[in-house]
Specification:
Distance between the termini: 45 Å
Helix content: 40-55%
CATH class of the largest domain: Alpha Beta
CATH topology of the largest domain: Diaminopimelate Epimerase, Chain A, domain 1
Oligomer: single chain
Number of helices: 9
Strand order of the largest sheet: 1-2-3-4-5
Number of strands: 5
Number of domains: 3
Strand content: 5-15%
CATH architecture of the largest domain: Roll
Structural class: alpha/beta
Radius of gyration: 37 Å
């Protein structure tokens, strides 16, 4: 039944009495005040809206952005593993040398979204590039859609403007993809982006790994020495003081670790606590005992050369994630 037919049917049921004479679109005469007056055109509009409303609510579901733990994420499997490994090494080396990040995402399709909209969502979620520097690039390939996009972060829009991104797509990616050489096209694009980024004047990368390792080693060494000394010295006064000292230091260390998730700081503070409790506790007990003039008990203890070895827990994980970069829609798209 068409919307106009439905409207006429509703109109026939809503009117209690038919007006004798009424111009089109006008209300019935005053004698028919009891009748419900709804013009035919209004009924047509209401029925059309009601019938079309469900269709308006059907929205295309967004294709999820894949989780990444390395620079190249191939959810389709179009790249050889050797190619993925080579690209990962190259991109990680670029990040180490310049601080910039490149991510390659290969998905089957972007769904009902355009690849440009998908690229914006990918930039917002993955945050490739450094925070406040925004020097990230995302290369997106939608195989089934035969679409490709280079999404450029704010900080690299000067070095990689839309025209340059488009040339990389048209000159490097599209010809290789049309020949079925996905690996070659992506490698050429990454090589070109690598060269451009290395020529751009960017803030030097922060050598966090080396600095953190030195700081970790120093705090861990000092904390271990203090913890060892603070736990062994109380043995002069009695075993119970040594046990109490160690337990209190361990509780402090666990509390700091759970609050900060920093092992070196927790070990350092637990060592400080053990040292002061052990030293001052031993001095106080010794001073108290000397007043009684008791027999001198030779409390000898053997510290069997205990090499305090501890696991640093510091590992240069190869996990890859965005550094907080922002994107604003810069870049270019193409198809093959």
């Amino acid at each position: 039944m068409s919307p106009r037919s439905v409207a006429r049917h509703l109109g026939a049921t809503l009117f209690l009495s038919k007006p004798a004479t009424a111009a089109p679109g006008e209300c019935p005469a005053q004698s028919n005040r009891a009748a419900l007056c709804i013009p035919q055109t209004v009924l047509n509009m209401l029925v059309t809206v009601c019938l079309g409303f469900p269709a308006l609510q059907i929205q295309a579901q967004e294709v999820p952005i894949p989780e990444i733990n390395q620079p190249v994420t191939d959810t389709v499997g179009i790249l050889e593993q050797s190619t993925v490994d080579k690209l990962n090494d190259q991109i990680l080396k670029l990040e180490k040398d310049k601080g910039s990040q490149i991510a390659v995402i290969i998905v089957p399709t972007t769904g009902e979204e355009s690849i440009e909209e998908y690229g914006i969502r990918a930039g917002e979620k993955l945050k490739i590039g450094r925070k406040d520097v925004d020097d990230g690039v995302i290369l997106i390939v939608a195989q089934q859609d035969r679409k490709v996009r280079i999404e450029v972060g704010y900080g690299l829009e000067g070095a990689i403007p839309d025209a340059v991104a488009n040339r990389i797509i048209q000159d490097r990616i599209v010809p290789a993809f049309r020949a079925g050489n996905y690996g070659t096209g992506i490698e050429d694009a990454v090589n070109t982006l690598d060269k451009i980024i290395r020529g751009e004047v960017l803030p030097e990368p922060v050598q966090q790994s080396e600095d953190e390792f030195v700081l970790f080693s120093v705090f861990s060494l000092i904390g271990s020495i203090f913890l060892l000394v603070g736990s062994l010295i109380p043995l002069i006064a009695g075993r119970w003081l040594s046990i109490v000292t160690f337990i209190m230091a361990a509780l402090v260390g666990l509390f700091v670790y759970f609050m900060t998730d920093m092992f070196a700081l927790a070990l350092f503070l637990s060592g400080i606590v053990a040292f002061f409790i052990g030293i001052f506790g031993t001095i106080m007990i010794a001073a108290k005992g000397s007043g009684g003039g008791a027999s001198s008990s030779s409390s000898s203890y053997s510290s069997s050369s205990s090499s305090s070895s501890f696991s640093s827990g510091f590992s240069s994980s190869s996990s890859f994630s965005g550094g907080g970069g922002s994107f604003g829609g810069g870049g270019a798209s193409g198809s093959w």
